[in-house]
Recover the amino acids of this structure.
């Protein structure tokens, strides 16, 4: 159940609470990504200390390794990974996009060739929901088709029709006790398709609604437009989730457009390239200007990495390829994202979000290298999907 507590007076920003089987989630919320059952380079204790309310797992990857028999024997994903809070599981729909070279779309699901042994795997609505039932996630996502952003109008139309049909099938499948289910709106850059998809899904009655088909290679203005085309057709009294987004600056702008939930691999992914997010932009810890900098990654940050280590030390560790550096920059980046969301919630509650948004935009400087880092992250993510 979702409680809408407050809507900002001058923007569409919303303050809410999402009740799940493993606890209440305060929104807007950022959800660290743990594709294979682990948020990369971080342990559950560090995530709790950072203030993570919910994490993600991936249906496709977990079904292959370790496999459902192992997770079922462990008593579900929460017990298997020792995570006490809520978990959202992706249905595997993103892999329909990222693994296009090794999958075949069929009317009733998706056929994959396993990257482990070449065996044929099939994932349809029934299979996706059965896996998520065994995982025991708090929020299960319907199986959808996420087409490339530059696909033809016909391909976008077909993806929407397939997404609607699969969503209806997912809606009828058995679920774990207390497990919520979210629909996913597709439609690419076509306003009429997004409206069609959103209206069809809301008529079915899901527990929340995700905006899919964004952050798939399209320019940022196109991504924002897709959000704006979808949001008016979603119920005000249910949670709204923008999948796979985004940078700190994007999160602020998307909250202003009425989105409640976010996930993104960027905090840990770019950390492994030596880049750190701060409230004023990104910092390349590997850069020569950090060589003798004995200050923290970010002044004023209270995360363990910033309380304990200097930029100079972390730069040294990165240059000699010590794992501690990857862990500490990851710890900082996740803390940075979660602190941003706490501040956003506080400003919405206080009625000062519009001012916060203006000040953030005025002081945050996007990195010139961020496009390069995002491209590397995207390539690594697609490689990881096939690894």
């Amino acid at each position: 159940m979702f409680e809408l507590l407050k809507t900002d007076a001058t923007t569409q920003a919303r303050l809410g609470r999402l009740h799940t089987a493993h606890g209440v989630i305060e929104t807007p919320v950022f959800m660290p990504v743990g594709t294979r059952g682990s948020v990369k380079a971080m342990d559950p204790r560090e995530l709790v200390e950072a203030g993570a309310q919910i994490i993600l797992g991936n249906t496709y990857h977990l079904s292959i390794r370790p496999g459902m028999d192992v997770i079922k024997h462990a008593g579900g994903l929460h017990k298997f990974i020792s995570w006490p809070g809520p978990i959202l599981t992706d249905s595997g729909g993103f892999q329909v996009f990222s693994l296009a070279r090794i999958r075949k779309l069929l009317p009733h699901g998706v056929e994959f060739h396993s990257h482990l042994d070449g065996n044929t795997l099939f994932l349809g609505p029934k299979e996706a929901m059965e896996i998520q039932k065994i995982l025991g996630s708090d929020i299960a996502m319907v199986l959808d088709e996420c087409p490339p952003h530059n696909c033809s109008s016909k391909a976008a139309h077909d993806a929407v029709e397939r997404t609607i049909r699969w969503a209806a099938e997912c809606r009828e499948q058995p679920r774990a006790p207390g497990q919520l289910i979210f629909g996913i709106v597709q439609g690419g850059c076509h306003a009429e398709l997004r409206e069609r998809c959103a209206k069809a899904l809301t008529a079915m009655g899901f527990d929340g609604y995700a905006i899919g088909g964004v952050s798939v290679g399209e320019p940022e203005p196109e991504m924002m437009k897709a959000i704006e085309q979808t949001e008016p057709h979603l119920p005000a009294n249910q949670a709204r989730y923008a999948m796979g987004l985004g940078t700190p600056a994007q999160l602020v702008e998307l909250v202003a457009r009425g989105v409640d939930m976010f996930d993104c691999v960027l905090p840990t992914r770019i950390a492994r390239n030596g880049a750190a997010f701060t409230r004023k932009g990104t910092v390349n810890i590997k850069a020569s200007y950090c060589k003798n900098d004995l200050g923290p990654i970010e002044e004023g940050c209270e995360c363990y990495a910033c309380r304990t280590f200097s930029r100079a030390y972390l730069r040294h560790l990165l240059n000699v390829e010590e794992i501690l550096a990857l862990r500490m920059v990851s710890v900082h980046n996740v803390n940075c994202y979660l602190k941003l969301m706490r501040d956003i919630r506080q400003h919405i509650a206080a009625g000062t979000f519009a001012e916060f948004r203006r000040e953030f935009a005025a002081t945050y400087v996007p990195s010139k290298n961020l496009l390069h880092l995002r491209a590397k992250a995207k390539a690594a993510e697609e490689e990881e999907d096939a690894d």
Summary: The chain has a mean pLDDT of 93. Residues 323-350 form the longest helix (28 residues). Residues 2-263 form a domain with the TIM Barrel fold (CATH 3.20.20.105).
